[in-house]
Design a protein that fits this description.
single chain, MetI-like fold, 2 domains, three-stranded antiparallel beta sheet, 18 helices, 3 strands
Length: about 400
Amino acid sequence: MKELEEYSFTRSLWQRYRRNTGAMLGAGAILIFCLIALCAPLLANGIPLLVRINGVYSSPALKALIAPESPEIFVEKLFNYLLLFLPLLLILFLFFRRWKKIFRIAAVCVALLLLIPFIFSGARIDKTPWRESAAGNDGSDFFLFAPVPYGPFETTALPYQKSSCEHWFGTDQAGRDVFARMVYGARVSLAVGFLATGISMVLGTMIGLFAGYKGGKTDLMIMRLVEIVICFPTFLLLLILMSILLDHGSRQSILLVVFVIGLTGWTGLCRLVRGETLKVRQNAYIQSCEAMGTPLHRILFLHLLPNVSGPIFVSFTFEVAGAILAESSLSFLGFGVQDPTASWGELLRQAFPDPLTYWHLMLWPGLAIFLAVCSFNLVGEGIRKALDAKEQNFR
């Protein structure tokens, strides 16, 4: 009886998951990619992190975090907000971890207060020649730069330079530092991966739950619609939708790519959730809820959804990998994120005229895409095996 009371599904799932070496390596790689994306301004930045001029300390990079200079200002502000909020959240947790209610209230207050400057500030262009000022410094002032003192939009060298001590991954066709563009390109890939997959997960889960529970003609009509969408090749459908939206005056941006990928990637999960719902809805507790007159939304989201959530988590990781690959492919073909926004697919496109000569523009972005996609697939496979082991044990 004591062992039964101490059983935790989450703890058991984690114990099974961590035994999978490949899944743990994939999770570690994903964590590294997320940290790189979050800390991009601290790794590559042409604006100093800290300066002391005439005895006065200031942080020009902090001002740039709140008002970033970027054509994709939403994504930049999103990651910069998380870069500032997560450390504050950790500090609050360390101080108030024994008082959970106070911690929640303090976390909400900090989140809202920190959100205000990000909402009411626009793009800010800093034209101060910081590197020249640091080079001409006689020692009276102090300048602290990021490890790579170049931003993703700065033309600082000759085009197509190879890797060197000054430019670790070389330069692109405009003389911009490839390492800086790789770091900021991680933000684009992860933003598209998580946001687009989130949209497709919400649509697929809601439609699949509703179709599986209602059954009958409702299920028949929804499944015929899903089959029509599935008949189109996914990538061809992405190209068609992007072309149509661009022809009607839509601005080519990350958000457009996110919505297009999200609105075309829900069908697989919809069929999966529907199948699981058809099995679970026959259980006695669902029939008891119906007999008691429980509202439809409570049956779907409080009773059905928790019992079909396992395949959703597995599908989420695979879909993130697919969204990253789709965004890179669209950018490579010129239908995705556009220059000057940093993107792994856009860097690969620059190497297309002569991949052997511009090997540094092919190697690093290609390796990053390969590692990101493989990592998410390994994590998804690890979750699937952990869930299967749990089911086998209960049988």
